[in-house]
């Protein structure tokens, strides 16, 4: 497996639940290292741009409104197979379908308020990392 970087966002529901540390612990225990991080209140424009791939979907406006409902914690995770490893830690999009012990099974309330975002491919990871972090703010770990 290759060393990869992926973009992770702890969504407003999980920030409000005060579980940033518990989620970071899961990343670290799985061998993922935090290579960049910041807390941010997304603007509507930033959230729309980030999820632009979904703009024609019926859930798009609800998704954007949710993502701007409070601050998010944004991080770059680095490690072997980081993209898939993070998706495995997250669990299925709908927490009802998420495997026991995954972040969404343990912390998400609904398909809308589902605790975390993770890049879904290496290609999208590079785009999403660059969306939030200049190269100088991402550190080789
Ligand atoms: P994310 O992008 O946030 O990591 O989530 P994901 O890959 O697991 O799911 P994706 O298909 O990319 O959808 C992005 C977010 O939109 C909301 N969604 N709602 N009501 C619905 O059918 C529906 N489908 C997706 C979810 O909050 C999902 O995280
Ligand atoms: Mg997605």
Automatic annotation (TrEMBL):
Annotated active site = 117 (pros-phosphohistidine intermediate)
Q: Which reaction does it catalyse?
A: a ribonucleoside 5'-diphosphate + ATP = a ribonucleoside 5'-triphosphate + ADP; a 2'-deoxyribonucleoside 5'-diphosphate + ATP = a 2'-deoxyribonucleoside 5'-triphosphate + ADP
Q: Where is the Nucleoside diphosphate kinase-like domain?
A: 3-140
Q: Which UniProt keywords apply?
A: ATP-binding, Cytoplasm, Kinase, Magnesium, Metal-binding, Nucleotide metabolism, Nucleotide-binding, Phosphoprotein, Transferase
Domain of life, per lineage: Bacteria
**Cofactor requirement:** Mg(2+)
Q: How does it assemble?
A: Homotetramer.
Q: Which family does it belong to?
A: Belongs to the NDK family.
Q: Write out the function statement from the record.
A: Major role in the synthesis of nucleoside triphosphates other than ATP. The ATP gamma phosphate is transferred to the NDP beta phosphate via a ping-pong mechanism, using a phosphorylated active-site intermediate.
PANTHER family from the entry?
NUCLEOSIDE DIPHOSPHATE KINASE (PTHR46161), NUCLEOSIDE DIPHOSPHATE KINASE DDB_G0292928-RELATED (PTHR46161:SF3)
- Mind telling me what this protein is named? Nucleoside diphosphate kinase
| Species in which this protein is naturally found | Lysobacter niastensis
- Name of the gene: ndk
């Amino acid at each position: 497996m290759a060393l990869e970087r992926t973009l992770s966002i702890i969504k407003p529901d999980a920030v409000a639940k005060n579980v940033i540390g518990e989620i970071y612990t899961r990343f670290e225990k799985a061998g993922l290292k935090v290579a960049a991080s910041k807390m941010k209140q997304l603007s509507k424009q930033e959230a729309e741009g980030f999820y632009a791939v979904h703009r024609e979907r019926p859930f798009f406006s609800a998704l954007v409104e949710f993502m701007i409902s409070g601050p998010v914690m944004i991080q770059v995770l680095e490690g072997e197979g980081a993209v898939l490893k993070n998706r495995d830690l997250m669990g299925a999009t709908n927490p009802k379908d998420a495997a026991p012990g995954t972040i969404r099974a343990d912390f998400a309330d609904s398909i809308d308020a589902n605790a975390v975002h993770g890049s879904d491919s290496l290609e999208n990871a590079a785009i999403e990392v660059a969306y939030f972090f200049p190269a100088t703010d991402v550190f080789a770990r």
